[in-house]
Amino acid sequence: MRRNGPHRRAPTPSACPPPVVIQLDPDAPIPPINPTALQQPIAGLPAAEATAAIVRVSGAKGSWKGVTGVADLTTQRKASAHVRFRAGSVTKMFTTAVVLQLVAERKVSLDGTVQDHLPGLLPGTSPRVRGPHHKGYQVVPAGFESAIPYGEGHVVDMTETSVTSTWASGDLVSTVADLEKFVKALFSGKAVPPGGIVAYGKTGARHGYAAGVGATRDLSRTLVYSVNSTDAKASGQNQRTLGIALAVSAR
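Given the sequence above, the corresponding structure tokens read:
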């Protein structure tokens, strides 16, 4: 596979974790935000499985923001809520929204292909996250090239990495504030014509970064998070991100 520009060779990825589906009763009332429940899944960072986390929750019954951990293991600089991160497969929501906009405008057909309209466009060339950001790390075996000791194991800095290392990689770099704006535009019918979905969410992961967005259909509750997971592409569910998703509706 040809790779463009300087990059870090990624560790062999494990199978992607299956999506988490949370069934919601459309008539069930949304509980008030529970700060204690939301703080719990991001407490204690940096830890073996993650170095930093950002969570942003909003809706009709209040809002909550949380940030923990460090932006850089070497300098121990504190994590910040106003940074950019790799959103991974959350990119697919943006691509889908644009396609459905064009379908609604009768400019493209769902039977067509991207290459029919934009030949040579796919999936990205820059290995960098431009602007302020947290560093992303991946746990690796001892002896791995450029590995640094971390707790009882070792990690490698994956902040600058090729986004073409796996097929259909998400190349979106964003912030929790911008992803929140997108979720609200999507579910309010501003991005695409409104549908009949009660609730929807999407996760994304690149080595060093695990992200997710979600919302109820009426936007009474929205969620955006970024967790600098040290094994973001591992098989099985990341307990930190699962805890965040469950805490959003905790009573």
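The chain has one domain: 35-247. Try to locate this feature in the token string yourself.
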